[in-house]
Amino acid sequence: MSIDDLTEMVIGYAITVHTALGPGLLESIYRDCLVLELVANELLVEVERRVPVIYREVRLRDDLRLDLLIDEKVVVEVKAVDRLHPIHQAQLVTYLKLSGFPAGLLINFNAMSVRAGMRRCDHPEIYAAKKQAKIDAARARARK
Q1: Mean pLDDT, range 32-60, rounded to an integer
Q2: Would the CA dihedral through 52, 99, 90, 111 be positive or negative?
Q3: Cα(144)–Cα(135) distance, rounded to whole angstroms?
Q4: Within 13 Å, how many C-alpha atoms sit on residue 132's CB side?
Q5: CA 74, 22, 41 angle in degrees (round to 5)?
Q6: Would you call 141 exposed, middle or buried from its count of C-beta atoms within 10 A (0-12, 13-18, 19+)?
Q7: What pLDDT band is residue 44 in, cutting at 50, 70 and 90?
Q8: Are 50 and 75 in contact (CB under 8 A)?
Q9: Is the pTM of this model over 0.85?
Q10: Are the C-beta atoms of residues 75 and 96 closer than 8 Å to each other?
Q11: Long-range residue pairs from 111-119, CB within 8 A, at least 24 positions apart, any chain
């Protein structure tokens, strides 16, 4: 399954949870309900996957904990906040960079709709490659 297909599936299950519960609950409740949906639909889910943090070739005492890791590919950061701030997206990008996983979803269940409170991010290297591919394609079209 492609990363895009997997992220769309996760978004669909997040919408199912949000439709059933609505906004206003604790982040942990949304996370646990989303896990139930994902597992019921035969996706591999890890809760609070630990990722070691290495700084100057020294492993730090504390590990990074990812809210959810889906099929060893997609990091999901669950929020239940008034609104997403740029730091939330930066946090997810940092998680992707440190973990090496290719994509992530930032899902705010305290929004009026999941799509309005959701951001998808690619690993910085994948993002850069996609951006370069778009530039190359535009240059190729301009040459014709």
Answers
A1: 96
A2: negative
A3: 15
A4: 6
A5: 40
A6: exposed
A7: very high
A8: no
A9: yes
A10: yes
A11: 111/23, 111/83, 112/23, 113/15, 113/18, 114/11, 114/14, 114/15, 114/18, 115/11, 115/15, 117/79, 117/83, 117/84, 118/11, 118/14, 119/84, 119/88, 119/89, 119/92
86: number of CA atoms within 13 Å, CB side?
0
Nearest-angstrom CA–CA distance, 65 and 86: 20
The tens digit of pLDDT for each residue in 93-112 reads 999 999 999 999 999 999 99
- Work out whether the CA dihedral 55, 59, 65, 70 comes out positive or negative: positive
